[in-house]
Amino acid sequence: MKSILSSRFLPFGAFVVLNLCVRSNMARTIFSTGNAIQSNLYEYNYSEPVTCQIYCHGPLLHTVQMAHLYKDSKTFVDMKLKNLPNKTLEEFDAFMLAKNNTPTETDIRDFVDTHFEERGKEFEAWIPNDWKEHPEFLDAINDPDLKQWGSDLNTIWKDLGRKMIEDVHKNPEYYSIIPVDNPVIVPGGRFIEFYYWDSYWIIRGLLYSEMYETARGMIENFLSIVLRFGFIPNGGRIYYSHRSQPPLLIAMVKAYVEFTKDYSFALDSLDVLEHEFEYWMNNHTVQVKGFDVAIYRDNSTGPRPESYREDIETSQAFTTDEEKEQHYSELKAGAESGMDFSSRWFINENGTNDGNLTNLKTRSTVPVDLNAILYWNAQIISEFHEKAGNAEKSAEYKIKAAKIFEAIQAVHWNEEAGVWLDYDLINQKPRNYFVPTNLAPLWTGAFNAANSQQISASVLKYIEKLKLDSYPGGVPNTLENSGEQWDFPNVWPPMQYLLVKGLENLGTAEAKNLSEKWAQRWVKSNFEAYKQTQTMFEKYDATRFGGHGGGGEYEVQKGFGWSNGVIIEFLAKYGGELSLSNSATQTVSLSTIFSLTVALAISLFGTLLGQSLW
Length: 614
Description:
The chain has helices at 52-55, 59-66, 74-77, 85-98, 105-115, 144-159, 166-170, 198-208, 212-229, 249-260, 263-268, 270-283, 308-315, 321-337, 368-387, 391-412, 440-444, 452-465, 493-506, 509-533, 561-574, 590-613; strands at residues 16-19, 27-32, 35-40, 43-46, 80-81, 116-117, 123-125, 161-164, 184-185, 285-288, 291-294, 365-366, 413-414, 419-420, 422-424, 429-431, 490-491, 540-541. By secondary structure, the chain is mainly alpha-helical. Strand 10 and strand 11 (291-294) form a beta hairpin.
């Protein structure tokens, strides 16, 4: 990763103000290409660029988005400017004056065609330098059709590779994209830039595909963004610059180190990782039962730029500007959660989860997963400091992790339900509705391993009670059919991963058996969808074996980064036992086949021997 002061980032630095208030611990590590240098750690205060007056808010954005020129509102805010922002704004003012502030749809379309280029101009297709035709994980797969599928998924990385053109770095003011040095693997479909939490599963898939250079480059991009913004935005666009997504950067570094054993990379990154963790603890916490717990929130005003018209339309249910502004904040907090949108965030006047987007109360819901991830982050940072020989800092973050752990058990664990539950700040009560994240502490290790048997019995009873094992296409994200894309019947790859890894981490035979069953079912159902369509989807349908999902603000997207990553990991882990000739939940292991073969041979030999004796 290049230093934040490198020439490549200097144009972008025109709207990143360096507040030269040096922290008390002056010697901090900032990165230069391949080498760590000692420098002062500055506070980076994000100062909004003039480009945001086009892509983030303002009359031009409002006029274009409300004209409904495009089926998907994201189309416009991803377009490249043909002129400098100030010139474009001046010409827009003149345009509106000439049209008496009432331009027709045709007028607006002509203005856009004159002043903007089509979306996607900031990228060029890129085949990763470290792509391998036959990574080792393929050798672990016995079924020939699954092996070929694994090879196909490995090839999809080439289709999703993107590299920013040099003009983005020279003239960033013409784009809504956030410039980064290294090429990336994008999710796919309408998501043509990087996204924060998507990248965790993409990077894990890359690591299993032995594309270590590509994975490291994506992590280095995120580290540089923390230095520039103070945190990692939702995605790689300036209109995402006031909200984040589930904080998985530290887990990305942990995964990279586990595969490469390159601990020096992790140790050199520690200051940035600490900054990312502390950003969340300093800007996202509230008090519940005497504990600091984290929530999702947003710091901007107005509708989401990428869904501007849609947000304006849903805000019509409110009468005052203040109510509408609160609604916009709830929508953006929901987007920060990654689950945009779901009845998980609905709190109506009766305190239940019935409703629609006007009932969003994301900022008043304490989410299990966010706090479980932050616990994990503190644990990893402590581990890295211990590896660096810094016992004092290791102990400091061990204590931070312990405090979050205590909060998770006090606020989220629900003895009656037998799992962890989100907490309703408005009604001061747990939200006893199923979401896979109710098991997130199992995924991140935020549970007492000494009580694994008891927790396992409780969790499995919960699963059985809700009949979560009865869905042929995977465990749905909720049991509420609201029409939102993070509700029933949609089932999402990262949530299946969370459930499978969480049950595996419990360590009991019963939990591990269910974990393996769900992983294998997920692989087979995804394969069925791929066999029918030659496509990996963003989400799937829990009610149909091999069915893809739907609903929400946009059509189901194809690609798809995190879907590929999860399946590649499951193929690497379970491919030796999986066979498509068996049912979705039944497999025959190689050892079983060998035993049956030996038994058959002995039987035949005995028969022949008996015949010869007679």
